[in-house]
Amino acid sequence: MKLLAALVLGLVAFAAHAAPPHVVVGSKAFTESIILGDIAADLAREAGATVTHRRELGGTRVVWDALVRGDIDIYAAYTGTLAREIFAGEHVPDRRAALARALARHHIRMGPPLGFNNTYALGMASDVARRLGIHTVSDLKRYPDLRFGFSNEFMDRADGWPGLKGAYNLPQTDVRGLEHALAYRALAAGAIDVTDVYSTDANILYYHLRLLRDDRQYFPDYRAVFLYRADLARRAPKVVERIEDFANRISTDDMRRMNAAVKLHGRADTAVAAQFIGQPAEVEADFWDRLAQRTGEHLYLVGLSLAAAILIAIPLGIAAARWRLAGQAILAVVGIAQTIPALALLVFMIPLLGIGGPPAMLALFLYSLLPIVRNTHAGLIDIDPALAESAQALGLSPFARLRLVELPLALRPILAGIKTAAVINIGTATLAALIGAGGYGQPILTGIRLASVPLILEGAVPAALLALVVQGLFEVAERLLGPHRTSGRSGQP
């Protein structure tokens, strides 16, 4: 027996050793981060690993928290972001040794510089800047009525608008946050006057922008580096070795050209990254394969969250109808969950469950509760009291009355509540792509980033059609399964 156990353990250890390591790469929701993520993924594959690239995971904090938790293994960061955002308040100098020590406290290591500095800058349309005589950030103080439109992340970052405003004592009050890809369109259309840009952004030339000189040197260097988990050196040493060898390989011009190839010329991120490091590009899935994958992911998110909500919400609705005080509390609690903005709720779940499907499904589950609880409660309290009294006179137990009389009579409003929850879930689930859960939101996010209407429609149209199909199926079910009943409020016998 001992020999057999030793043999089994040996085989398991051999299989674990023989299997290629699996590496998860993360990237933020802008083109350069995704290209660098694809480069990291290609380097890991060169080193013999299997790779998953979780794209467009939102802002810096989302990706950083995912790395610390172990949801991802590698992502591309910038030294200025580490000093001013990740370690804001810790007074960590923007120097490699100091940053490495701060990262080590979180069991994170920093690879060598990739070779380019992608610093922040403020940009204006060249003709507007020329007409107003604006060349530096300090010049903006002369024009308090200028309209500023910054990326949402820049609006809140420690090295973004709050610090910049204080450093330059800028007087502007018309300052709004918006999706970064849309800011360029707003600038070109004259809807805003100033936005934040990255020095490697291909849109600078495309939109004929003037970069304002940072005359007070507010923005630090943003040297691109790969961050990776310390335990990756044990799990995939060849991957770490390949990452460490990839030093100073990308110049500022290289990065700007790669960004332009994706943003301006419509090439795939994966193809651009593969070409840069001399690898053959992976064959992209065609439209129908992508649609099948996204549909499966979306149905998985919506189906599991809705099924869990039905199992919990119907008993809560029954309890709310049985006990008045408890019912008020139940309806109040599920109502509060419904008022939390969907994106905020998704982000709140990340510290508890990480990224991907679990936090998305929990958020969708919470959003599904109110319509089902409310309709179950309303359906039960609206039953004709005479029918309830008749069932009681027949000697049926409370559970039998509920099962045989009350729930069948309340079935139509209950189904209507489930239908409402399902339709809400289908739309809300598109936001789950922001935390790596996939679904129809993935092509929508990519389409917004690349200003590609066909990609946006690739996610938006199937989501709308799925909502219509689900609504139609539930309406048919309401007609077939829900008995007509007499309301106790109608005054009829």
Largest sheet: 3 strands, antiparallel
Structural class: mainly alpha
What's the count of strands?
10
Strand order across the largest sheet? 3-10-4
Summed up, the helix count is 23
Average pLDDT metric: 86
Euclidean distance between termini CA atoms: 77 Å
Stretches where pLDDT is under 50 for at least 5 consecutive residues are 11-16, 485-493
What's the alpha carbon Rg, rounded to whole Å? 28 Å
Q: Indicate the percent of residues in helices.
A: 55-70%
| Residue share in β-strands | 5-15%
General form: globular
Quick overview of this protein structure:
The chain has 493 residues and is mainly alpha-helical. The protein is built from 23 helices and ten strands.
What does it look like?
The chain is mainly α. Helices cover 60% and strands 9% of the residues. The strands form four sheets. The protein has a three-stranded antiparallel sheet. α2 links the parallel β1 (22-26) and β2. The protein is globular. The relative contact order is 0.10.
Could you outline the blueprint of secondary structure elements for this entry?
Layout lengths: L1 H17 L3 E5 L4 H16 L3 E5 L5 H10 L4 E5 H8 L9 H9 L3 E3 L9 E6 H7 L15 E4 H5 L4 H8 L6 E4 L1 H10 L5 E4 L4 H4 L2 E4 L11 E6 L2 H4 L1 H9 L6 H12 L5 H8 L10 H36 L1 H16 L2 H12 L3 H25 L3 H9 L4 H12 L1 H18 L12 H10 L2 H29 L12
Parallel strand pairs: 1-2, 6-7
Antiparallel strand pairs: 3-10, 4-10, 5-8, 5-9
What characteristics describe this protein?
493 residues, globular, 60% helix, three-stranded antiparallel β-sheet, mainly alpha, disordered C terminus, 23 helices
